[in-house]
């Protein structure tokens, strides 16, 4: 009986120790998830900035479309992005703000501010919330998306989109070149109030898709005057000089587009042959994923007809 009692006591002690060990193991396993850092150091072009790991109230004074493409929680935005029809549904409850309206920015209680390096009040903005500034054009259009991904702790998602987009755009380019011919030229022209613009290969309006990814050809005059500068301004009288075999017309709905009824315009071979692809200027002035996907779909459909 004494031996049986001793054995029972040992078994109870062993069971208690095992339970404590299991509880400690479970606690150790759960600790990393429970203590995930709320901030991390982002290495910006202007130095390290401590930013939230999961920002919930972002003010984007620049690069807002890149943030929207990654489902960033924006509470304040610039007026130009707000006027873009592609983003209308995403910005229903978002306030328009500027770098000068510090009181409004404070009221919105941001936990992250994205600004341009050229903007004033950067120091004051940084006192309100962690502020990261980007220099326009310092990164190419795809690297910029990856960089916004790093800032929002979504680098993998941004990188995956870039690889997929390039693959799809390049494949589409191969098919388009087969359709229109390897030597065919494409120009991107935009209407203004009294002038016109023709673009190089990195000025939005789909230029990055057409020239960088699809590897389509610019007319020689466009290459000469717009490739390095990015954009070249000219008058209506010389429209035919800048028109390629195909013309992507960035048509601004807010200006007088009566030029399309003139002999100068209608004498262009691309016009008479139906090789004009119209895009909305207001929906084409960015090079973010949302805009790029929109324009890629237009080009794939239009060049195949």
From TrEMBL:
Residues 1-25 form the signal peptide. InterPro entries: ABC_transptr_periplasmic_BD, Bact_iron-sidero_bind. The keyword Transport applies. It holds the Pfam family Peripla_BP_2. Keywords: Signal, Transport. It comes from the Bacteria. Residues 57-305 form the Fe/B12 periplasmic-binding domain. Gene3D superfamilies: Nitrogenase molybdenum iron protein domain. SUPFAM superfamilies: Helical backbone' metal receptor (SSF53807). It is found in: Cell envelope. Belongs to the bacterial solute-binding protein 8 family. This is Iron-hydroxamate ABC transporter substrate-binding protein. It comes from Planococcus dechangensis.
């Amino acid at each position: 009986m004494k031996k049986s009692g001793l054995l029972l006591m040992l078994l109870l002690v062993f069971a208690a120790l095992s339970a404590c060990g299991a509880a400690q193991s479970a606690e150790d396993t759960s600790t990393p998830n429970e203590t995930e850092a709320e901030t991390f150091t982002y290495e910006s072009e202007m130095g390290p900035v401590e930013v939230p790991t999961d920002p919930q109230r972002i003010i984007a004074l620049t690069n807002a479309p890149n943030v929207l493409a990654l489902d960033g929680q924006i509470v304040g935005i610039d007026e130009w992005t707000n006027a873009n029809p592609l983003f209308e549904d995403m910005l229903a409850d978002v306030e328009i703000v500027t770098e000068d309206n510090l009181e409004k920015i404070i009221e919105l209680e941001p936990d992250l501010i994205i600004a341009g390096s050229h903007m004033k009040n950067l120091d004051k903005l940084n006192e309100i919330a962690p502020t990261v500034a980007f220099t326009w054009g310092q990164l190419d259009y795809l690297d910029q998306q990856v960089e916004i991904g790093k800032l929002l702790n979504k680098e993998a998602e941004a990188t995956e989109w870039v690889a997929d987009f390039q693959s799809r755009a390049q494949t589409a380019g191969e098919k388009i070149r087969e359709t229109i011919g390897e030597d065919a030229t494409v120009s991107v022209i935009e209407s203004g109030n009294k002038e016109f613009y023709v673009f190089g290969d990195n000025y939005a309006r789909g230029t990055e898709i057409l020239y960088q990814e699809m590897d389509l050809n610019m007319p020689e005059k466009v290459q000469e005057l717009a490739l390095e500068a990015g954009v070249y301004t000219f008058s209506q009288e010389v429209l035919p000089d800048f028109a390629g075999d195909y013309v992507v017309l960035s048509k601004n709905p807010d200006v007088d587009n009566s030029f399309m009824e003139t002999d100068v315009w209608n004498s262009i071979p691309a016009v008479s042959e139906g090789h004009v692809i119209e895009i909305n200027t207001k929906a084409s002035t960015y090079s973010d994923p949302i805009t790029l996907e929109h324009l890629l779909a237009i080009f794939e459909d239009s060049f195949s007809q």
